[in-house]
Amino acid sequence: MVVRLLTQDAFRWNAVLGGLLTANCPQKAFFGFLYMRGRRVRVDGYTILLLLKAFTLLPAFIFPSERLHSYVFKLGFESNIIVQTSLLKTYGLFGNLQSAFKVFDETPQKDIVLWNALIAAYEQSGHPSIAAECLRSMFNGNVRPNEVTLVSIISSFSQLAALAHGRVAHGYAIKNLIRFDSFVQNTLIRLYCRCGRMRAARRIFEKMRGRNEVSWSTMINGYTDTGRLTLALDLFKNMVAADVIPDEVTVLSVVTMCMNLGSFELGKWIDDYVTRSRYRGIIRLENALIGMHSKCGDIRRSCEIFNLMKVRNVVSWTSMIQGLALHGHGMDALTRFAQMQREGFWPDEILFLAILSACNYANLVAEGRKCFKSMVLEYELMPWMEHYGVMVDMLCRGGLLNEAFEIISGMHIKPDGVIWRTLIRASQEEGQVGIVGQFIDLLIKIEPENSENYIMKSSLHGINGEWNNVEDVRHEMGTSGVSKKSPGCSWIEAKHLA
């Protein structure tokens, strides 16, 4: 009915197309445009802008990007800088940088908005060096950057970790920008964090009048990435106290920090925060909390969170089984594994690594053997090096050295040094000295530059009283260019003293 009433009035057509886009119906808007053209309604520049907006919300196959340029040219809008800028942004959004530059190059009057669109297209498509080169060309064309330009350029320098260039851009912003807005400041904070200059980032952060969620999150992530976990947590607490709502990624990062610090009190605090806030029920946060409490020593709370989850995925089961394994609850882990199978979840390689580790820690050799066979035969998963390593360790700890050697011999990948060393040490403990020498020789072939392997071989000859062979091993180390490891040391901190 509406279409019949519109007749040839482009203004009313534009109103309908705009309404469809506002209602998040880009496909209907696109087909409305096609119907409009079929009725030979003369389009204007605003119609093209609506078409381009619809195109950015649709899959590329609906309107192939190769047709866009020629279509705009055919309709006579090749000199309309607003249309050309929108067309360039559309190409940039889909990563078609060649067409984006073609639009830019063919536009006679290149204003600051068009330059910004081109620079942003390169920066957002992962070509920061080209974006920086565009800035040079922009200056040569007597066009001066504004705050939008600087956001893209500083982001490019951040991707490149180009601290010196970033400082120049910072100085330019201070000298030339009338409005030093939060977008520029947040981008500068991200640059300094990316380059490890946390003091410079913090100075900008402290001077900001309008800190937003991005400002806080960028600083917290900067402290996290540079290993300053305590400062990151303190800043997060300040963020919460300032009634700034963090995003899900930041909360997840803080949960991970608490897990890495292994602090029971911090873990309880972040758990209370997540439970009281809008993040309750977000599955990946609940999964992270399960892992955090397990590593902080509170397996009971991990079980509570898991049992209260309304929706679970394979990661949920993996986190729970890993936690039970860490605390030596092998039978409980197997019970959860059986429950998971009954509920129809399909285990992956990581989950099998968790259940094998649980069997290993609890010395459940028969159950571990059964799980390993189930992984290969029932679920048709190819074991990783880590799976083989856990199985060999489990069998060696159970005194089943022959079976461990059979596992190694049947591996579809070349066993690494860790697996051989596990078997060697177990063989030595069982007094099977005769075969140990052969295993060590195989190990040296795999890791000819590892001095520990030569030391084991030398020690074996010493135990057997073969002192001439001990000298031969030392000579072999010298000719192979292998140096003896320096003694290690550790530091502990007490009352701020190392």
From TrEMBL:
PPR repeats lie at residues 111-145, 181-211, 212-246, 313-347. Coiled coil: none annotated. The keyword Membrane applies. PROSITE patterns: PPR. One of its GO terms (biological process) is RNA modification. Keywords: Membrane, Repeat, Transmembrane, Transmembrane helix. The chain crosses the membrane at residues 43-63. It holds the Pfam family PPR_2. One of its GO terms (molecular function) is RNA binding. This is Pentatricopeptide repeat-containing protein. The gene is PCMP-H32.
